[in-house]
Specification:
Layout (H helix, E strand, L loop, with lengths): L1 H32 L3 H14 L4 H16 L4 H21 L4 H17 L3 H21 L4 H15 L3 H10 L8 H14 L4 H13 L3 H11 L7 H17 L1
């Protein structure tokens, strides 16, 4: 009887913990929709205190650190957010490397590190990781919208390398990796079909069409972009940039 009471007590504690996590995840989701990203991140961190390998919380923590880092004007603050994002992504990959979300998080965070890293070898390592993990995510789930976007953006950036990145890639990659605008467009168009309200994808897709000398398609994408609902704080800046680009093309 004593052991039965202990067992029932343990089961009740586990059930309560699971309920608490579900409540926190729901609260975090609602806060994101209200554009309260720091508060949402705090909820995901609370989830991870209870379950350090909760995959959704790890991936979302990586995404939100990137979002917050995007808006930092101080380079050191930006780098800290991106490094924290990569740390959460690493934890997600260690927790379950067979989930497409985990590989996507690694690809996304590695891409952001290329923006703040100053050491050439590390820049190139991150460039390679973006493609490696995006490819892995899509091998697990070809219809992962944001992995398609991340790989499309990789192709776009490889086709438009300049400055430090181009020198670093030439020196340490053994020549430029294959990246072209047609592939960038293909992956971003697939993302658009899978996640039709993802603002960042529209902006980069329009830029890829413009650079690929396909202005009509770029204008079509931009016209859709400016009408999209605002679902994150980053969307505000992306829509403003898209509106400016659209105006310049008309």
């Amino acid at each position: 009887m004593k052991y039965l009471v202990i067992l029932l007590g343990s089961l009740l504690m586990l059930t309560a913990g699971a309920q608490d996590i579900n409540v926190l995840l729901k609260e975090a989701d609602n806060l994101e929709k209200q554009l309260k990203e720091p508060e949402a991140l705090d909820r995901y961190k609370q989830v991870l205190l209870q379950n350090p390998v909760q995959l959704k919380a790890l991936v979302k923590a990586a995404e939100l650190n990137v979002a917050l880092g995007n808006r930092q004007t101080d380079k050191n603050s930006k780098r800290l957010y991106y490094e924290t994002a990569l740390s959460f992504a690493n934890r997600a990959f260690m927790a379950d490397s067979n989930q497409a979300d985990a590989s996507y998080a690694m690809s996304m965070a590695s891409g952001k590190m290329t923006d703040v890293e100053t050491e050439n070898r590390k820049i190139v390592a991150y460039v390679k990781d973006v493609k490696k993990y995006a490819d892995r995510a899509l091998s697990i789930n070809p219809n992962h919208a944001r992995a398609n976007y991340t790989l499309g953006k990789w192709h776009y950036e490889m086709a438009n390398l300049s400055g430090v990145k181009k020198m670093a890639v030439k020196l340490f990659y053994g020549g430029l990796p294959e990246g072209n605008l047609d592939d960038a467009i293909m992956y971003m168009e697939k993302c658009r079909s899978l996640e039709p309200y993802f603002v960042s994808n529209y902006l980069d897709l329009a830029k890829a069409y413009k650079d690929n000398r396909r202005p009509a398609q770029a204008i079509e994408v931009l016209n859709r972009l400016v009408k999209l609902p605002t679902r994150s704080t980053d969307d505000i800046a992306s829509k403003a940039e898209g509106a400016k680009l659209l105006e310049s093309m008309q």
